[in-house]
Amino acid sequence: MTVLTAQSLDALAPVRKHLLAVARRDAEQVLRAARAQAAARLDQARVDALALVEQGRQAGLELAAVSVARELARARREARGVVLAAQEEIRQQVREEARRAATGWSAGPEAERLRAALVARARAALGSDAQLRETPDGGVRGAAGSRRVDLSLATLVDRVLDERAQEVSRLWS
């Protein structure tokens, strides 16, 4: 290794100074570029993070909308079930009340005329040799061979109500 003299070192001082200045300037440029690059990456990371947050928010809203729609559909089905059950209960009450009224009518002053009309109808349907019997509610059932007719008051009330189902439905329309 060679040792430089003090005079040589003094002569190199301007070169060292210049090299040091160039190195400092280059280091400052690299540092500025690194800071600018870091700031740009940080800005991009913020933009990306905001986009991810927005995507997550949108996905959450979509999931919530689906969940709300399902819950609303379930609630509507449940409400419809409650309404249908109430309507069926009303139908049954109307049916029972009509049956009671018919049975009451068969025990009233018109009972014999009602029975005669039912017997005539049964004989018209089955023939004069039909076997007829009175039902407990005041109606008539008959048979002739394999043919049968049910003119019990409960059956007649049920038929009338079934034929008039739309009119009964108007009670809640």
What's the layout of helices and strands?
Blueprint: H1 6-106, H2 111-126, E1 131-134, E2 140-144, E3 147-151, H3 153-163, H4 165-169
Antiparallel strand pairs: 1-2, 2-3
Helix pairs in contact: 1-3
Specify the number of helices. 4
Structural class: mainly alpha
Kindly, what is the distance between the CA atoms of the first and last residues, rounded to a whole number of angstroms? 113 Å
Taking pLDDT < 50 over at least 5 consecutive residues as the criterion, the unreliable ranges are none
Order of helices and strands: HHEEEHH
What is the count of structural domains? 1
Q: How many runs of DSSP E, i.e. beta strands?
A: 3
Gross morphology: rod-shaped
How do the strands line up in the largest sheet? 1-2-3
> Major sheet: size, sense and barrel closure?
3 strands, antiparallel
* Helix amount: over 70%
From the alpha carbons, calculate the radius of gyration and give it in angstroms.
Answer: 50 Å
Mean pLDDT: 89
Quote the beta fraction. Answer: 5-15%
Task: Explain the overall architecture.
The radius of gyration is 50 Å and the shape is rod-shaped. With 173 residues, it is mostly helical. The model has no long low-confidence stretch (mean pLDDT 89). Helix 1 packs across helix 3. The longest helix is centred in the first third of the chain and has 101 residues. Strand 2 and strand 3 form a beta hairpin. The chain has one domain. The termini are far apart. The chain has a three-stranded antiparallel sheet.
